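**Paired protein data**
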Amino acid sequence: MATLSASQQAALSQLRRWVPYAVGLLLAVLRPPALRRLHAALRTRFNATLARWDQYGSALLALVVLSGVRQLLEVRRICMREGIRTHLMRNLVPLLKALPWVAGELESAKRKVRLDVSTKLSREMSATRRRLPSEGMVETELIELMHQRQLTDSKGYTDGTVTGAVYTDDANHMDLIGKFYGMFAYFNPLHATLHPATRQMDAEVVQMVLDLYKGPEGACGAFTTGESPPQYPALPRPSLP
């Protein structure tokens, strides 16, 4: 089955939206016999019902009906765009947060979370500094400090107590990668003519990933520094009514 483009899907959505109105208008203009009889019966019944109302009551009824129709159309719009639950959460949650009791509980929970995070993050800090030192450290002291910090950051994954952060514990492999990183740490692939080998490795890795995922002709890719950017293209596009 052929896949419709975004413009074709939008056109189809608009067509589905207006078809009922077009059919209703066509029936109203042509007015077949069955429809004329139904129209006459409804007209007689409607006039008989309104005969018991005064002008004010009739106007009030019309306003109530129009208001009800408007609310139904609004509910239909909400259902098509974000859904009733999302709409209620978006509008009711801020009101609930503004209640004094709820606001106090939230603030108390925030203080507790901030304290817990601050305690955990500062638990194993060493030789903290808040400004540039007036004199630089000698090389041996700096190497010793970095070695201590490496041991601090290695404790979690070397004993197998964490997951999802470091994906290997092979010391030889890590040392090899570290050597390669040190060799190219100051080369910028954005300057392709200045660092052609770095650009080549960048492009080769992208092509390898495209091959693994069966990328179509013309597919491309790019390096990122984190997990979030690669996920953006996979996010569903919002659908319009």
